[in-house]
Design a protein that fits this description.
Elements (H helix, E strand, L loop, with lengths): L1 E3 L2 E8 L2 E5 L1 E5 L3 H12 L9 E5 H15 L12 H8 L1 E5 L11 H11 L3 H16 L2 H21 L1 H16 L5 E2 L9 H17 L5 E2 L1 E6 L6 H13 L4 E7 L9 H20 L4 E5 L5 H6 L4 E5 L17 E3 L4 E3 L4 H6 L15 E4 L4 E4 L2 E2 L2 H28 L4 H8 L16
Helix pairs in contact: 1-13, 2-4, 5-6, 6-8, 7-8, 9-10
The protein binds zinc ion.
The site of zinc ion has 6 residues, from α13.
Length: about 450
């Protein structure tokens, strides 16, 4: 544990497993990404600040559950059968994201619905989901949207009035999370869009801690609409709650947070203030850990100031949309902290001696066909599948490297380098997230 002004680094433990902070925790969404991550963690270096990952509950049901069953198989003598995955799951900390925003959002609604049917969620959820599915099928998009917004709020308000059903929902969720053999329980949450929903979120956080006793470590969780960053009252109320909150781990998720865009001045200031308060809390409660989900390009500044663990998808893009799903995706550049379009890479490579501007083992294998302006792998045009895999492996390297940079800056008492790095990047307006002076 070390600090320099506003930043800190720690070696902490979760579920008895060691975690070095700042830590990057990728959101893993399919088997291939899990494989890429496993390969990265097998390498002897460039993974010190990884070692954790996040998976949404519906993906975990399909991907992790079979692996956990395999892990628990024994041979004739009753000894566990060694496997790569077993070792990996044994030493890695994973967080099961309850993904309750898809009770409202359409993007993964069907994945959520499918899970709910398989594990049978409590009756109010099933009724709500069935109603929503019918409306989605049978009414026009405009009418459906209006209906959905109202119905979704009603769902949480009704649940809040019916304590027994609310507790059933939390318990069912914890039962499901426990099937993944995780000791970190994350409660199901409404997306906070107003003070009323925040009050519900706070009550769920309180009751969840009571319901989690003897089962594991219950995290405090706030799932937030980014528009609440324009509401000082809500931010202040969250901070007030955190000051007295006993949880070791507190998790935040702001949906679709893009603080680097122009016109986000108020949101940036509000987010900075939140981080400042988190940083203060950590000063007198040293064991506290703050985690930010779906952090995207905010990962670097957040891990430098208020948060210990930051998470983003392996594409470093956390917006729920089909954007970027087709074609060769972008490439995250460590110097400018930005996802560069694939089409721009040949030119960048030409100005860099035919190489990608990164020393990682993946990028070193990629060369350029100058005449055709094409990226090559093993001497021929890189395929879509190869690029899919390589850029994710590369992104993990870069995020580890950025966490390492923060670590080093703190150790050497040079945290001003963090602000400088932001100033020299494509997200330079995020420099305001980092204090200039700090006592
Ligand atoms: Zn690379």
């Amino acid at each position: 544990m070390d600090r320099d002004r506003f930043a800190r680094i720690t070696k902490t433990s979760l579920e008895g497993k060691e975690v070095l902070t700042p830590n990057f925790s990728p959101l893993i969404q399919n088997e291939r990404e899990l494989d890429i991550y496993l390969q990265r963690t097998l390498s002897p270096k460039d993974n010190e600040h990884l070692g954790t990952f996040v998976m949404r509950i519906f993906d975990a049901y399909n991907i992790l559950l079979p692996l956990i069953r395999t892990k628990n198989q024994v041979d004739i003598e009753g000894k566990p059968i060694p496997s790569l995955y077993s070792d990996f799951l044994e030493k890695t900390v994973f967080f099961i994201d309850p993904a309750t925003e898809y009770l409202k959002y359409d993007f993964y609604f069907y994945k959520f619905l499918q899970l709910a049917r398989r594990v049978r969620f409590p009756r109010p959820i099933m009724t709500y989901l069935r109603g929503r599915e019918n409306r989605k099928k049978n009414s026009g998009p405009k009418f459906y949207k209006k209906w959905k917004n109202k119905e979704h709020k009603d769902f949480w308000y009704k649940l809040d009035r019916d304590q027994r059903r609310r507790n059933d929902l939390i318990t069912d969720y914890f039962d499901l999370e426990s099937r993944f053999e995780t000791k970190i329980l994350i409660p199901p949450m409404p997306i906070v869009e107003n003070v009323g929903l925040l009050d519900i979120a706070i009550r769920i956080n309180d009751i969840s801690k009571a319901l989690a006793i003897n089962r594991g470590e219950c995290a405090t969780y706030f799932l937030l609409s980014k528009k609440i960053l324009r509401n000082e009252k809500i931010i202040d109320k969250i901070i007030d709650y955190l000051v007295g909150d006993p949880s070791k781990l507190t998790i935040f998720k702001f949906k679709n947070l893009t603080l680097w865009t122009t016109g986000s001045l108020i949101e940036r200031e509000s987010f900075r203030k939140l981080m400042q308060e988190l940083s203060k809390i950590r000063k007198y409660k040293k064991e506290k850990l703050f985690m930010l989900l779906e952090a995207s390009l905010q990962s670097f500044p957040s891990a430098s100031y208020g948060f210990d663990i930051v998470s983003s998808s392996m594409r470093l893009l956390d917006i729920d949309s089909s954007f970027g799903h087709s074609g060769y995706g972008g490439y995250f550049n460590e110097d400018i902290l930005w996802n560069i379009d694939y089409e721009k890479l040949p030119e960048i490579m030409m100005n860099n001696g035919g190489r990608l501007p990164c020393p990682c083992n993946v990028c070193r294998k990629i060369t350029l066909d100058n005449a055709k302006r094409e990226l090559l792998y093993n001497g021929r045009k890189i395929t879509f599948d190869e690029w899919y895999e390589h850029r994710r492996g590369h992104n993990l390297f870069v995020m580890n490297s950025l966490m390492k940079m923060i670590h080093k800056a703190v150790e050497e008492k040079h945290v001003e380098l963090i602000r400088e790095k932001l100033i020299n990047s494509e997200i330079r307006n995020l420099k305001v997230l980092i204090p200039r002076f700090y006592q």
